[in-house]
Amino acid sequence: MARLAFIVCHLSGTGHLVRTLRLGAAAMARGHEVLVISGGRALAHVDDLGVRVLDLPPLTVTGLDFSTLVTPDGLPADEAYRQERVAQIQNHIAAFTPDVLITELFPLGRRMLAGEFLAAIEAADNALILSSVRDIPEPKLKRLNEAADHLRRHFDGVLVHGDDRLVPLAATWPLPEDLMRVIYHTGYVAPPPSVAGPRGKEILVATGGGNLGRFLVQVAIKAAALSPHPWRILVGGPDAAEISASAMVDHGSANLTVEPARQDYPDLLANAACSVSLCGYNTAVELAGLSTPAILVPSEEGGEQEQLLRASALAGHEGIDVIRERDLTPEVLTPAADALTAGPRRPAIPLRTDQGEAAIACIEALLKDRIP
User: Fold this and answer.
1) 104: which of 7, 16, 188, 315 lies 20 to 30 Å off by Cα?
2) What is the 3-state secondary structure (H, E, C) of the chain?
3) 152-168 per-position pLDDT tens digit
4) Which residues, 6 or more positions from 277, have their beta carbon under 8 angstroms from its beta carbon?
């Protein structure tokens, strides 16, 4: 048995934390002791899967402005706040004495939190140090040399939670040749697809667990008014209940339900007549294993490319349509969703996917290689 410490900070959506918790649960199932240090806001709708989680004083961002980290009251985090987080990280790591430290996204992202990750690495002493990244870390080619330097100085490997047959890491982060030998594609991390029952009649719209996708919510509300089908819209973010209640008061109709994000989203997705969603990591993987026809509206807020790249990779598959944010109107969305609702189910997309077992097996192999 080994002690695995994960450090993660979800600043906008929920994907980073959800994936980390799934990896932690997979490690526990294989007999390891796990600690997750989380630096984002608490998320009531996210299941911790029995993983031990220690929450830091939380940080978040406004929209996708990752250059300014703010506290829950919306104020920029000052130096004292930031140093308190660093001190707690070091104390947690020192007390846990991990054999393995896994940094979520850093150094291929979370540059503003570099001091925290480096403090964790320092506190981890002689641990195996690994970076854990999704299939498509946001391309930042101007940061390539900086990330490569961190990898050479501090890291033993990079776990890429994606399928290189769909999108290899090199397509978005062409790291130098000497680092490619420590890149390990471990497959997508997701639970098995929900078992689909009889196909429902709802058009299901979801924007994930964060603040992204509010534009899609507003367009979908108006699109529902033009459609004969029932629409259910799930809203993310800390103000989801307020946004949902307001939408139902202002736009409520017999065919429209607007409510906060739900833990049973995968089940709703499996049985929906049609899905309309962003193209974040978890949503894309959940969709791939199902037969639900889907419209992907990748978020491009703040000039981000990650969701667009993922949606483009999936767009060639039957029953998957992509509408860019710049083209999204109720008059475009309604007929597209109605057409998929009236059409057949689609074939599932074959991706390498498990619940994190391949990633943990990779960690175990790397640990074994370190033993003299």
Assistant:
1) 315
2) CCEEEEEECCCCCCHHHHHHHHHHHHHHHCCCEEEEEECCCCCCCCCCCCCCEEECCCCECCCCCCCCCECCCCCECCHHHHHHHHHHHHHHHHHHCCCEEEEECCCCCCHHHHHHHHHHHHHCCCCEEEEEEECCCCCCHHHHHHHHHHHHHHCCEEEEECCCCCCCHHHCCCCCHHHHCCEEECCEECCCCCCCCCCCCCEEEECCCCCCCHHHHHHHHHHHCCCCCCEEEEECCCCHHHHHHHHHHHHCCCCEEEEECCCCHHHHHHHCCEEEECCCHHHHHHHHCCCCCEEECCCCHHHCCHHHHHHHHHCCCCCEEECCHHHCCHHHHHHHHHHHHHCCCCCCCCCCEECCHHHHHHHHHHHHHHCC
3) 999 999 999 999 999 99
4) 204, 205, 206, 207, 208, 283, 287, 294, 295, 296, 297
Question: For residues 209 and 91, which has the higher predicted lDDT (pLDDT)?
Answer: 91
* Cis peptide, bond prior to residue 107, ω within 30 of zero: yes
Q: Which residue has the tokens 């890291």?
A: 155
